[in-house]
Amino acid sequence: MSNVQNSLDYSLLERLTQTYAPSGIERAVAEQISEIIRPYCDSLTQDKMGNLIAIRKGSGNGKKIMVAAHMDEIGVMITHIDKNGFLRFTPVGGVHITELPHRRVRFSNGRIGVISQEKLDKPADLKLSKLYIDIGAADQDEAEGMVQIGDSAVFTGEFVWAGSRIISKALDDRIGCFVAIEALKRVQTEHEIAFAFTVQEEVGLRGAQTAAFALEPDVALAVDVTLTGDTPKAHPMDVKLGSGVAIKVFDRSMITPPQVKQWMAETAEKERISYQWEVLEAGGTDSGAIHLTKGGIPAGVLSIPTRFVHSPSEMIDTKDVEAAVELLVALLEGPIPF
Amino acid sequence: MLLKTLSELQGTSGAEKKVRDLLQEEITPYVDSLAVDKIGNLIAVKKGAKNSPKVLLTAHMDEVALMVTEITPDGFLKFRPVGGIDPRILVSKPVKVSGINGVIGSKAIHLQKTQERQQALKLDQLYIDIGANSKEEAERYIKLGDYAYFVTGFEALGQAFFKGKAFDDRVGCYVIVETLKKRFDNLNLVAAFTVQEEVGLRGSKVAAYHTQPDFALNIEGTISADMAHIEEEEWVTELGKGPALSIQDQTTLYNPLLIKQVVDLAKQNKIPLQFRRGTSGNNDAGKIHSSRTGIPTLSINVPCRYIHSPASMVRQDDIQNTIQLVEEILRAIPDHFIF
């Protein structure tokens, strides 16, 4: 149906996923994105929160559309270094504590550590205060030579192919950044488009809030991952990997306005792009903050169905990625019926 | 002594007037203008040279307290907390409700069954006894919605400590008052003494929006658990180790580049500094840093033991060092401190 796959540069996605960018320290991803998109935009700036804002000017007859994808990923932050050089930490974003033992983490300087646990009387005793990070330091002095309190680390998880699918850390939301970048490269439109690569989504949609305030768009679209219900005995959810881009109807941060849903679905149908409806019972994304900005901004979300979200092995299907790029481009190029 | 007066004043969320009036009186000689905004924040401006950066200092005036929600037929007052209070600390505490003395009552130990003794009392089982014989009598003095406050007197303990209620965040208010007494020629200094922090950072949201600063410094009284029975990694802050700089809490991730500059400034000026090594809780910085198009914000905390209780403790030297650190940051801002 489409030859988009050939034109998508997945080595860029690989680089993006493997780059260190926990919430609050998104600089490395922002630099990579800047380098790639600079030739395709009319202006490129970073605001005080660290959001990267790329503007593509319109013809003057169109609307102003904001596209948001967040650069940050979940991680951990050091809160204490003990005499023996072990680190205590706190989550940055939605980290599942019980899944942490023996995961590896990486600090900005490249230092790798492994999370382990104190002796537990029973597995149910596992909680954050029982966990520590071992960075291979012999004592406190050696540890403090490498890391300090307040430093953040991300989980490691290499980028691998599994047929048409990709497994990696941080697909949430580098895949959104990737889709936005590909759309930015390709789009030809009379609308003014403001691409906001946002910060601090994982800790509460904070970057999108200030970006939307500054940009004041007529309409906004976020691109982010969503959960699926297609794995063994999964929580019921009608989103499947490989069945197309998901159009968000509902999550904890937003109910998509009917006119936005209709615009998105009709555009997908017209362009013969596979899509599915997404009703997400947990979580939220940048549009949740954007739609409440100033006097209210109509907003929608293009979601990439993703298994094992917030694990080091998130899984996506490239068919869905291609559908997302196609739909985003079509939305940005077509008329906005409201 | 100003901190004593501030600590002993009654002023919970939504009822900060007494604190605001006192602060207004204290700072009038040192500022160029004063105003109270619609939500109740006290906003003071101390002008500097034209085009100097605008720096916002914030501390919240409100303290945690109780609100009367029901008067029982026999004249007891049922209540709900205003802000985060652990009901287990309330039993048998004296309180003051609208000028009337009361005590939080519960069954005497003699009357409790074995099982009852093993369980902490829940909020629903507690009430305030003001010595009224009936609902009618109680209603002569008290109406629904009245606030009940802890009545702890402020005093010095040992050689270095202060004990009192409401150090969260009267100690922050005190630090800002002391700061406003100093001269900063190359800064436009705005101080916001905020309302309703304890119920959801509400005053600061409004203050940040209309003051529109270039940079904000939030001064807080924060948790310290530096006691023998608690593991060192859970202390969060230690008394006597200086002001504590926040790295992360529930509503803010603090910018590492700002943090580094404060660490360097403290080192250069030989001011002890620690990190706030825990991430529970939140403060006004959460609403300030995400206001409008984003405002670079830091939180500097005075460590307080037994916070949100009838009696908390602070170290005098921590307060002095906090005042000094705030001064050094403000002096560095025009030329050296980048945000």
Short précis:
The complex is a heterodimer of chains A (338) and B (339). By secondary structure, chain A is an alpha+beta fold. Chain A has helices at 4-7, 10-18, 27-37, 140-146, 171-186, 206-215, 258-270, 286-290, 318-333; strands at residues 43-46, 52-56, 64-70, 75-81, 86-92, 104-107, 112-117, 131-134, 152-155, 160-162, 165-168, 192-198, 219-226, 245-251, 254-255, 275-279, 299-305, 314-317.
Fold and architecture overview:
The complex is a heterodimer of chains A (338) and B (339). Mean pLDDT of chain A is 96; it is low at 1-5. The two termini of chain A are 30 Å apart. In chain A, helix 2 runs antiparallel to helix 5 (171-186) and helix 5 packs across helix 9. Chain A has 2 domains: 3-73 and 169-333, Zn peptidases (Aminopeptidase, 3-Layer(aba) Sandwich); 75-155, Beta Barrel (Elongation Factor Tu (Ef-tu), domain 3). Chain A is an alpha+beta fold and 338 residues long. Chain A contains 9 helices and 18 strands. In chain A, 51% of the residues are buried. Chain A has helices at residues 4-7, 10-18, 27-37, 140-146, 171-186, 206-215, 258-270, 286-290, 318-333, and strands spanning 43-46, 52-56, 64-70, 75-81, 86-92, 104-107, 112-117, 131-134, 152-155, 160-162, 165-168, 192-198, 219-226, 245-251, 254-255, 275-279, 299-305, 314-317. The model of chain B has no long low-confidence stretch (mean pLDDT 95). Chain B folds into 2 domains: 2-63 and 165-336, Zn peptidases (Aminopeptidase, 3-Layer(aba) Sandwich); 65-150, Peptidase M42, domain 2 (Elongation Factor Tu (Ef-tu), domain 3). With 339 residues, chain B is an alpha+beta fold. At the A-B interface, strand 4, strand 5 and helix 6 of A face loops of B.
